[in-house]
Specification:
The structure holds two protein chains of two kinds. Chain A is α+β, with helices and mostly antiparallel strands. Chain A contains two helices and three strands. Chain A has a domain of about 55 residues: Roll (Ubiquitin-like (UB roll)).
Chain lengths: ~100, ~250
């Protein structure tokens, strides 16, 4: 099995209703149908999932680690963006 | 409940089918062509063994002689096993294994579906659980049959060989002997012969998408239901039974 005939796919699993799909890992498969089966077989053996997504790894656009400082560093000093300055009224309960 | 051994014998056949096929398929564990398929085949094998456990457990209750599922699974002799021959056939290459699983799953899916209406509540409950599992087994095997058949020249050739090898063992699945007929008459068992048309349609639909054909079969192999097995069963049993025979009563 070569990378050409069985490319890499990223697997995302949603554990319960109301949660979002989370990256679980990756698998090799020939096409989307087989990728979905392989994802189910490899990553949902212990009741982890209600729903599975598979995406060709090559279709994912990723940020370049070189750009890390430019992309993410500037937010470090902007603590006012965190909602930690608000008092939550008791009536609201847990948020 | 019947006053003879019919129900016990009938359940044992089903249990043996699933234990032996599960044990056989489990031989791929650690050996499959890819990690993904290694897990897929092991998952299916474990589904089959889980179904076998429920069936042996029920058979033990029906028998009422104090034997448990382990004794029924591990401490009988070769001639006492009543599985269809197709369950014990060697795995061969991947195409062979996939073809065998495809043929069996295409049969067991309508079988369990029919069993949902059994007057026997336990068998109907086992069927409800097994039906979900076997539906996936059929889908898994079908997708592979299509890709192997309509794949490369080599995968196509291997599928043609596998169909020749396995097709002669499919007739036994639809056999209706006295025991099966009695079970159907009592509203407990499934009319296996009546499932052949649906099986054939499923098989031919998938094979045609796979650019393959079901071979002409002039003579179907038979014997498993009467305890007459291929030479392969004894070897499976020697491995399967080793622990219980060496350490009687051993548990996990």
């Amino acid at each position: 099995m070569t990378e050409v005939t069985t490319p890499l796919w990223e697997v995302f699993i949603r554990a319960r209703n109301g949660l979002s799909h989370k990256h679980a890992g990756s698998i090799h498969a020939a096409d989307s149908e087989m990728a979905l089966q392989a994802a189910r077989d490899v990553y949902t053996r212990r009741g982890e999932g209600q729903s599975v997504w598979v995406v060709r790894s090559s279709d994912i656009v990723a940020s370049d680690p070189v750009d890390k400082d430019m992309m993410f560093e500037p937010t470090a000093t902007k603590i006012y963006r965190h909602p930690t300055f608000y008092e939550i009224p008791d009536e609201v309960g847990n948020m | 409940m019947t006053d003879d051994n019919s129900l016990f014998d009938y359940v044992i056949r089903l249990a043996d089918d699933h234990l032996i096929l599960g044990q056989r398929l489990g031989e791929w564990c650690g050996e499959a062509p890819t990690l993904e398929e290694d897990l897929a085949l092991a998952n299916i094998a474990l589904d089959l063994i889980g179904q076998a456990r429920s069936l042996y457990d029920y058979a033990a209750t029906v028998e009422g002689k104090g034997r448990d599922e382990d004794q029924l699974a591990f401490l009988r002799y070769e001639r006492d096993y009543r599985n269809a021959l197709i369950a014990e056939l060697p795995n061969g290459d991947f195409a062979c294994t996939i073809t065998r699983q495809f043929f069996v799953a295409a049969f067991m899916k309508p079988f369990w579906h029919a069993m949902l209406n059994s007057k026997d509540a336990t068998l109907a409950a086992i069927a409800a659980k097994a039906l979900k599992e076997v539906s996936y087994h059929l889908r898994h095997a079908s997708e592979w049959v299509i890709r192997l058949g309509d794949g490369t020249e080599e995968s196509h050739r291997r599928m043609v060989d596998a169909l020749d090898e396995m097709s002669i063992y499919t007739g036994e699945l639809f056999e209706m002997d006295d025991l099966s007929k009695r079970m159907v008459e009592q509203g407990i068992g499934v009319d296996a012969a009546g499932l052949e048309r649906e099986w054939r349609t499923t098989v031919e639909t998938v094979l045609s998408e796979a650019t393959l054909k079901f071979p002409e079969v002039s003579h179907m192999q038979t014997g498993g239901r009467a305890g007459r097995h291929t030479e392969h069963l004894g070897h499976i049993l020697s491995e399967l039974q080793y622990m219980q025979r060496t350490y009687p009563g051993l548990t996990w």
